[in-house]
Design a protein that fits this description.
8 strands, mainly alpha
């Protein structure tokens, strides 16, 4: 270790090397004994940091705590549902154990976690999204990218059957009720959902750099960090044009209702809407609208169904950003009622059947 006082400086400087890594800087004191203590502490911290880095890149068995941290850094924090992903990884860590290595996670352990989660009285879809999907994603990345040993899990045996997703379309009257009840600053975001079929995360994350008024297109970032471009219709153009002066970067914003100095919020200013804030506003004002059995995701169903009536499945697939048209095909079932009504109307005119000829003649 080198501890010295540069010419003309009051404080000591240090320089030391650990495992080929050089560390240097100012000790922040002119007292040699204090400087020596500070440097010893810095050396301990450097060793801990290098040890953690070594665990992150180790090729042998990896502890779940390290794997979860690395998965969050490389994948989880960049997902549209990053808040949920962080929570799911925390829950999994509590069930599996921080120091349990990935090669010790067995089918039996996965089955137990699925059973535990089902005991929380949640839907099969929630179990799949909060247990199977994040754990499968983590372990696949560990095996394919990090090249660390993992157990061969039969994920198909643990995946719970989910009921076919319902298609709930809002009537024009229901849409009006929802928008009328919604707070003025959140209403444009909800209207945008009805017009485009965008997911809530895509709306919250929309910035002005992805809005092209000249080319009349919008680029959103969807699931899996994938982008898609949506044409800007006249109603969407008018809606976005009214928002353009509210904020420098965020498209959809809310008005701060009360000054909170500790949060650096000033009454009357515009701030970007957040996922949690959007969820809270939707729950509160949807209740005031008195529209029964309608979730925010149903705005997506509504946009898709309305578009399908005047377009085709391929158009809806592109609008919603589905990779597989089979996913979009569920909206075709929603058209059966329209088809039935049209057939009923077409056959409502009384008609007479000619008398049958006598076959014996």
């Amino acid at each position: 270790m080198s501890l010295y006082k540069p010419k003309g400086r009051a404080n000591y400087s240090y320089s030391f090397e650990i495992r080929g890594n050089r560390f240097s800087g100012s000790a922040g004191t002119g007292n040699r004994r204090e400087a020596e203590k500070i440097v010893e502490q810095l050396k301990r911290e450097a060793k801990d940091k290098l040890a953690k880095q070594a665990k992150f890149t180790a090729e042998g068995p990896m502890a779940f705590e390290i794997a979860a941290s690395r998965y969050w850094i490389e994948v989880g924090q960049h997902l549209a549902n990053s808040v949920d992903c962080f929570r799911y990884l925390g829950w999994l860590e509590g069930q599996i154990g921080k120091h349990t290595t990935l090669d010790k996670i067995t089918d039996s352990k996965v089955a137990l976690m699925v059973a535990t989660r089902r005991g929380d009285d949640v839907s099969n879809a929630t179990v799949n999204r909060s247990v199977i999907e994040p754990l499968r994603g983590l372990m696949r990345r560990a095996a394919r990218v990090w090249k660390v040993p993992v157990t061969d899990i039969d994920w198909g045996q643990h995946w719970l059957r989910e009921p076919q997703e319902r298609i709930r379309e809002a009537s024009r009257d229901e849409e009006t009720k929802l928008l009328t009840a919604m707070r003025d600053d959140y209403a444009p975001a909800v209207r945008f959902a009805f017009l485009t079929g965008c997911r809530r995360a895509e709306i919250v994350g929309l910035t002005w750099q992805r809005v092209d008024f000249f080319g009349k297109t919008i680029t959103v970032i969807g699931k899996g960090d994938k982008t898609r471009t949506i044409p800007m219709t006249t109603p969407v153009y008018d809606l976005l044009w009214q928002q353009k002066d509210n904020h420098a970067t965020a498209v959809f914003t809310y008005v701060v209702k009360a000054t909170r100095k500790h949060l650096k919020l000033v009454r009357g200013e515009r701030r970007p809407i957040t996922m949690e804030g959007f969820k809270t506003a939707w729950r509160r004002y949807k209740g005031e609208a008195k529209v029964e059995n309608f979730r925010f995701h149903d705005t997506r169903h509504t946009a898709a169904t309305r578009t399908l009536r005047v377009g085709n499945l391929k158009v809806v697939q592109q609008m919603l950003g589905h990779e597989d048209i089979a996913t979009t095909a569920k909206y075709a079932h929603a058209m059966l009622d329209d088809m039935r009504a049209a057939m009923e109307a077409a056959n409502s005119i009384p008609s007479s059947i000619p008398a049958a000829k006598d076959a014996s003649k």
